[in-house]
Amino acid sequence: MELKETFKPIAKVNSVSKKYGRTVALQDAEMEFPEGELTALIGPNGSGKSTLLKIMVGLTYADTGSVEVLGLKLGIQLKEQVAFLPEIDHFYDWMKVEQVIDFHRSQFSNFNYDKAVELARDMNLKTDTRISSLSKGMRGRLKLVLTLARDVKLYIMDEPLSGLDPQSKGYILEILNSEFAAGGKSVILSTHEVIESEKFYDYVIMLENGQVRLQGYADALRDEHNLSIQDLTREVFN
């Protein structure tokens, strides 16, 4: 792993293992995520990406090993300091977009209501629309709105592009790029879809069968292997 001299981790994963019955989700996983960068956590379905992110935000627990986020051990204090975008949403179909935004404002003291409304407008989400009438792509956009409206240091996103139409993927990637172009914020984004998003990566961690296969700065990996990140994933995972 090649590190910059200024590498400062915003999160550390130390020898983490997790099983579900006899299924191994993570096995002695060891990695660090740099502060102020967009880190892509790349791997095929079933590689352990979602399990790792859920451990990092306290939704499940590791069997062995430890995780440190923002210099803190996992605990309830991280709820206000990390914004998590889950792969599967849990919206109530009877609610309207504006009601979902209001609900999240009541849950988090660092939720910026005006920013949420602005982001919804930028993503062509009408606030008077019922959740039941939103397409999967629009629901994906709403998840992003709710996540980015939080004023936190770390945003963790589990497969935000999975199964979305090309237009929604484009919206999400452009919003992510514009939101974090100025730096200062850290993003960990898991994905198995690389082609559309690799130009935004600062740092890359490749995970397979619950173990780290490759990690490093995206540009350094491209130079070292003379391959795009997309082509490098084919080489690593095949």
Automatic annotation (TrEMBL):
<keyword id="KW-0813">Transport</keyword>
<dbReference type="InterPro" id="IPR003439">
    <property type="entry name" value="ABC_transporter-like_ATP-bd"/>
</dbReference>
<keyword id="KW-0067">ATP-binding</keyword>
<dbReference type="Pfam" id="PF00005">
    <property type="entry name" value="ABC_tran"/>
</dbReference>
<dbReference type="InterPro" id="IPR051782">
    <property type="entry name" value="ABC_Transporter_VariousFunc"/>
</dbReference>
<dbReference type="InterPro" id="IPR003593">
    <property type="entry name" value="AAA+_ATPase"/>
</dbReference>
<dbReference type="GO" id="GO:0005524">
    <property type="term" value="F:ATP binding"/>
</dbReference>
<protein>
    <submittedName>
        <fullName>ABC transporter ATP-binding protein</fullName>
    </submittedName>
</protein>
<feature type="domain" description="ABC transporter">
    <location>
        <begin position="11"/>
        <end position="234"/>
    </location>
</feature>
<keyword id="KW-0547">Nucleotide-binding</keyword>
<dbReference type="InterPro" id="IPR027417">
    <property type="entry name" value="P-loop_NTPase"/>
</dbReference>
<dbReference type="GO" id="GO:0016887">
    <property type="term" value="F:ATP hydrolysis activity"/>
</dbReference>
